[in-house]
Amino acid sequence: MQQFEGRTAVVIGAGSGGIGTGIAEACARAAMNVVVADIDTDGAARVAEALNAAGGSAIAVKVDATDRESLAALCGRSLDAFGSVDLVSNNVGVVLSAPLTEATEAQWQWVLELNVMSVVRSVDTFLPALRAAGGDTHIAFTSSMAGLMRPDLPGMPLGLYAATKHALIGYGESLRYELEAEGIGVTVLCPGPVATNLIVTSARHRPDRFGGGYDVDDEMPPGQDPHDVGDVLLRAIKGERFLALTHPELGRFVERRYRSFAADFAFASEGGPDGS
Fold it and tell me: Which residues are the signal sequence here (predicted)?
């Protein structure tokens, strides 16, 4: 996607002041129309008001990314307001610290629902609109460095989170291949440590069918200002990159992981036909 000015970005999960808000801000700075979508109506309204006050063109829309009808309504509202959709960025996600050996099925369902299926639903919903825009459109969604490497955070077991973020890498890579001929790009944002309220918003907005909201005392570790992340994503989109990376210095940990895979392949190649 080479041209941003005058085009329309739908940013899902943009009302919390985190990564989605940073992406909405970057899109506005690039002179795009911005649909600020979030389950938090007040948060979405605040972000849209700030963008408009700075000279942008934005509307706020409530959306529940776990509900196809809600996403369809978001798509319709976006088209009614701006005539087309050119970029869809889904940044909905939750984090849950729980050992894999103790995680309940309900916890698995919640994390998979928000981190993976919300992305699948948003792609399914907006793909016709992106196709109708006539090419040079883009899909972006947020995974994590935890989707590329083992998340070693002391005292914070993130196996559920990492499993879903790995799934998004595989989904995004296959989707990119499938849509390439149609002129629809796919970029997966893999942020490293970013200063967000993800733990709090994850707990606050947990749907009733997964146990409802709850209070937490944990805090995310310090990290990069989320308002800078949007520029990282737009640069990657314009550069037609698959991965948008906020912390390129962490690449050495990803390389270490894949070197361990290479060692497994080398070990397998040394065995005989019977595996001995």
Answer: none
The pTM for the full model equals 0.87
pLDDT in tens, the chain (276 residues): 889 999 999 999 999 888 899 999 999 999 999 999 999 999 999 999 999 999 999 999 999 999 999 999 999 999 999 999 999 999 988 878 788 999 999 889 989 999 999 999 999 999 999 999 988 999 999 998 889 987 666 667 788 989 999 999 999 999 999 999 999 999 999 987 655 555 445 445 555 555 554 454 555 454 567 788 899 999 999 999 999 999 888 889 899 989 999 999 999 998 766 655
Q: Pairing mode, if any, of strands 33-38 and 184-190?
A: unpaired
Per the domain annotation, does 271 fall within a domain?
no
Domain-embedded: residue 193: yes
What's the CA gap between 274 and 276, in Å, rounded?
Answer: 6
Distance CA 60, CA 14 (A): 9
Cα 158 from Cα 223, distance rounded (Å):
17
Phi/psi of residue 134, nearest 5 degrees: 90, 25
Domain that holds residue 80: 8-250
Q: Within a domain: residue 259?
A: no
- Residue 264 counted as domain residue: no
11, β-bridge pairs: 36, 89
Q: What is the DSSP string of 4-63?
A: -TT-EEEEET-SSSSHHHHHHHHHHHTT-EEEEEES-HHHHHHHHHHHHHTT-EEEEEE-
